[in-house]
Amino acid sequence: MASCEVCGNDYRLSFEVHAAGAVHTFDSFECAIHALAPVCEHCGVKVVGHGVEADGVFFCCASCARRRGSPASAGELVDHAGRAPDER
Predict the structure, then answer these.
(1) Distance CA 51, CA 85 (A)
(2) Shortest CA distance to 13 belongs to which of 28, 35, 24?
(3) How far is the C-alpha of 60 from the C-alpha of 46, rounded, in Å?
């Protein structure tokens, strides 16, 4: 058994995540997300899915990247989530 580095739970089904040359131990995906997921620079939500990166800044979606407006490339981002295949 190994202890979760976030909550300290000593759990027989804990798991390791190898990221950026470091090894992390967690008892749940919730704790792994809490510790490792990037945070949207506009709304502050944890980026759990693919998210968007514009000029090295992370956002949860293209809308947040455009609203923040700081990265020069953000204006060119297109968010296709929820659109029909023939819509652009």
Answers:
(1) 20
(2) 28
(3) 7
Instruction: State phi, psi for 81 to the nearest 5 degrees.
Output: -60, 130
Tally of CB atoms within 10 A around 28:
16
Nearest CA to 37 out of 51, 24, 45, 48 is that of 48
Cα diameter, the chain:
51
Per-residue pLDDT of the chain (88 residues; tens, 9 = 90+): 799 999 999 999 999 999 999 999 999 999 999 999 999 999 999 999 888 888 788 899 888 888 876 556 665 666 665 555 565 5
What letter represents residue 38's amino acid? P
Ramachandran area for residue 32 (φ above 0: left; ψ -120 to 50: alpha; else beta): alpha
